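> forwarded from #structure-qc
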């Protein structure tokens, strides 16, 4: 339907994320394609450009959309999004607070995980990032009534609480520890995501010193694709290796 995002794949595996608009002629490497010809069609069809290039038309998965969507800020890669969800133990009906909306990759992932009975509260101090994130979210998920997007600096405090889960994609998550100790419910899960070892180290040390967090763990993930073509089976020459460190902790009834 019009306004929906679709993914076009050419014979070389190149991907093009396109928003369907009536009357628009989309220009690709393999020629021009009238988007009218895609509106109302089932996914999985094959279409031909003005130069005879065949394209496969599919609805993008969340992972595909995250990699191809417009960005205001660097996105969290799909390989980390899955781990963040599982290690953060996000479940349907949960109330999740996120700080650092960025381009909306983690926000979309959380929205799908908590479902319509849950709620995601997302803090973003940059208005341009928040606008781009909302465009991306609505383009993939449509209208979302269980999202609250606030222009709130989480370093200054957390006015929303109690929450079940806390996700931080910020440069200094350790500054949030005192606020998190109040906003997270007992048993709630802290999840922070940072790119460097010193950031992860300071986060862990601050969580340990606070007294209300236990089961503190830091991990990173690697993803290596494989090429399989007949008898030629080998790992890909390129892989997404280090992207960030994920630190998790549980809120407990510890010392003040």
């Amino acid at each position: 339907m019009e306004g929906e995002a679709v993914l076009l794949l050419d014979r070389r595996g190149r991907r093009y994320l396109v928003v369907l608009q009536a009357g628009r002629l989309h220009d690709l490497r393999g020629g021009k394609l009238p988007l009218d010809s895609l509106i109302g069609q089932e996914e999985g069809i094959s279409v031909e450009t003005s130069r005879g290039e065949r394209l496969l038309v599919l609805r993008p998965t969340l992972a595909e959309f995250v990699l191809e969507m417009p960005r205001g800020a660097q996105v969290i890669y799909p390989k980390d999004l899955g781990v963040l969800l599982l290690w953060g133990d996000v479940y349907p009906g949960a109330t999740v607070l996120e700080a650092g909306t960025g381009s909306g990759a983690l926000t979309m992932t959380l929205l799908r995980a908590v479902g319509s009975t849950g709620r995601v509260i997302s803090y973003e101090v940059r208005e341009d990032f928040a606008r781009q994130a909302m465009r991306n979210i609505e383009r993939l998920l449509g209208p979302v009534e269980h999202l609250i997007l606030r222009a709130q600096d989480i370093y200054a405090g957390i006015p929303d609480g109690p929450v079940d889960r806390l996700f931080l994609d910020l440069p200094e998550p350790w500054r949030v520890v005192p606020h998190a100790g109040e906003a997270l419910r007992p048993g709630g899960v802290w999840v922070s995501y940072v790119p460097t070892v010193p950031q992860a180290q300071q986060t862990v040390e601050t969580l340990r010193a606070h007294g209300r967090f236990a089961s503190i763990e830091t991990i990173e993930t690697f993803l290596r694709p494989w090429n399989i073509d007949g008898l030629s089976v080998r790992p890909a020459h390129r892989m997404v290796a280090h992207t960030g460190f994920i630190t998790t902790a549980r809120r407990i009834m510890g010392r003040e």
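QC bot note: The chain has two domains: 5-60, 64-251. Helices lie at 62-68, 78-87, 105-114, 127-141, 177-183, 197-210.
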